[in-house]
Amino acid sequence: MNALFQLAGPAEQRSQEVTDWAARIGWVIGLLLFIALLYWLMRQGWKWRGTLQSELPELPAAPPEPSAARRRLEGRYHGSTSAGQWLDRIVAQGLGTRSRAALTLTDDGLDVLRPGARDFFIPARQLRGARLEKGIAGKVLTEDGLLVITWEHGGKLLDSGFRSDRAAEHTAWVEDIVRMTDEMTDEMTDDGTTDAAATTHDRKGAS
To answer: What is d(CA 121, CA 98) in angstroms, rounded to the nearest whole number?
Structure first.
């Protein structure tokens, strides 16, 4: 009998070690509230940045009958920033939304189709160059893993970052866009309408 009481003693002690569910639930609720607060602050910061960039006009629409494609690319759009400032993210006009993207380069410009996000078009005369980078808008990739296209919109120079599903295509895209900007610069020079500041930025973007 004594042996039975001795065996039951430790088991009874272990059964008394009841989990403090109230403390655990309180901790989980506190963590969820903290996450919700961080999310709210991020949303407020996003809205505030959008308000600051509200002067950015509507994005151009693609021509109804585009010219033949020079080059196509499928991959991802990683965001846009003020030119040369990869942390100054642009969120106005839907440019802050990362998404899949299909790019088509024609003599008219660059058409960017984005499933689930706003499409946009960059007229050829607004292209200012292209280069390879490793990051943009808080997104860091491998060295030269990002195709960055510089363009002008609403009097502001922007950098937009793309990554092809076939990264080996990036170099050819840079060459084609630089060639296009050089052609447009030559045309503008012939017309006597060249913007000296834009031309200087073209050369820097191509380097």
So the answer is: 16
